[in-house]
Amino acid sequence: MRTLKLHFPDTALPTLDTFLKQTKEARVFRRAQVVREVVKGHRLQTVSDTLHFTSSALRKWVHRFASQGTQGLVDRPRPGRPPKGTEALAHHLDRLVDHDPLQHDASHSQWSCQELATILGRQTGVQLSRESVRVV
Fold first, then answer.
1. Which of 32, 48, 115, 129 is in the most buried spot, having the most CB atoms within 10 Å?
2. In 3D, which of 83, 90, 93, 94 has the Cα closest to residue 119?
3. What gap in Å lies between CA 126 and CA 136, rounded to an integer?
4. Secondary structure letter of residue 67 according to DSSP
5. Does 78 reside within a domain?
6. CA angle, 56 as apex, 54 and 60 as ends, to 5°?
7. What is the CA radius of gyration of the chain?
8. Both 95 and 127 in a single domain?
């Protein structure tokens, strides 16, 4: 395996420590952990074996951190249509579930995913499938 020839500034370790405390997403947290070990001076192969991270993935994240900082550890936007379900829509759905379905002209006294999708579409104009409502 080739030697990693990167030098990190003295602020890299404190920056990663702060980032680790603020990160909520598990994948990003794990990336920051492995990069932190490399920045501390551990060999790539050792970190890879110890933390069960492939060498190529570890090398990629270390290089991205070196060039972009902590922003390089965050997922890049995925291609394709953005999801219809937003945080605001999920919040609206949570409030809707707290009400009696019959207050919203539902046909049953208990909510179903299909009924929620119909009422949500009527109130917000966003048409979701019953499966999308179930996932939200």
1. 32
2. 93
3. 13
4. H
5. no
6. 115
7. 23
8. yes
Distances (CA, A) of 107 to 54, 120, 130: 53, 14, 16
Count CB-CB contacts under 10 A for residue 53.
20
Contact 12, 62 (CB under 8 A): no
Structure tokens given for 40: 């501390």
Give CA–CA dist 84/62, Å, rounded.
34
pLDDT tens for each residue of 11-45 = 999 999 999 999 999 999 999 999 999 999 899 99
Tell me, yes or no, whether 82 lies in a domain: no
Cα separation, 99 vs 74, whole angstroms: 38
Q: How many domains does the chain have?
A: 2
Range of the domain at 40: 12-73
pTM of the model: 0.61
Amino acid at 57: A
**pLDDT at position 2:** 60
